[in-house]
Amino acid sequence: MDRQKVLLQLDTDEQPSAFDSIVAIDAGEVDRLLRYSNVTTYNVRSIVHGAIFTRGPDDLSRTAIFIGGTDVAAAEAVMTQVLDTFFGPLRVSVMLDPNGANTTAVAAVRAAARTLDLAGAKAVVLGATGPVGQRVARLLAREQADVRVASRRADRAQAVCKAVSAMVEGAKLTAVGTETADKTKALLDDAQIVIAAGAAGVELISTEDWQGKSALKVIIDLNAVPPLGIGGVEVHDRGVERSGVVCYGALGVGGTKMRLHKLAIKLLFEQRDKVLDAEELYEIGRGL
Q1: How far is CA 45 from the centre of its chain?
Q2: In sequence order, which ranges of the chain are alpha helices (DSSP H)?
Q3: Is the sign of the CA dihedral 261, 266, 268, 274 positive or negative?
Q4: 157-180: average pLDDT
Q5: Is the pTM of this model over 0.90?
Q6: CA 101, CA 72: separation in Å to the nearest integer?
């Protein structure tokens, strides 16, 4: 008898994300969704043991784990503990996407790649010290782009550069402080790609800041809350050309993010040892 496909949704928050639950159900592969809240590195081992000891190795491909929550660092720590709990053939596939950071970053970078070759491209990531911004910088660096990591605090930008460089050999990264509007605007002079991943409801650059920049090819705003992160870009823009620049808004990128999220859930059940973090999700995203 075929075992049902069971997905364990491990959330570090007080309430499991309804968004993640609905996406998992809509993926069409999950027979049973088990939702856990307040998951920590201390209590996750017993949950994992329940997942791997109840079925034989041949049936474990029909069990999978999704790790989410709004605290990205906490979710990453839970992921590490989950992987450390596995041993031998007793393991199941795992996907990490806290606060949608991985799938959103992948969708943004893939949108840029549809417009120009990322290798050697000059890219600016605004709000680069947040969860999505860090992953955007990481993925761009893996694609050999020349990345300016921008933050209002130069020391935080430098910390992101250091962390990404430790993960990506040969990464081309420059930390930039954007304490003033003039410093932010100056970043755009020779930029070909601009991706804004700042806090919701904060405009990082105005329409006048980026229009007329001859090198600029694509601009992507990941903020859906007014005021938007980039002036002159509409939230539904999906490859819309404005003033000679290809524009993507948060909901325009969101369509790819949703398709990727659902596809990744399906792929978790192909085998028992997949680990889907930003890089693995990016490879899946190449086919979208």
Answers
A1: 25
A2: 18-26, 44-53, 72-85, 101-113, 131-142, 154-167, 181-186, 207-210, 250-267, 278-285
A3: negative
A4: 95
A5: yes
A6: 8
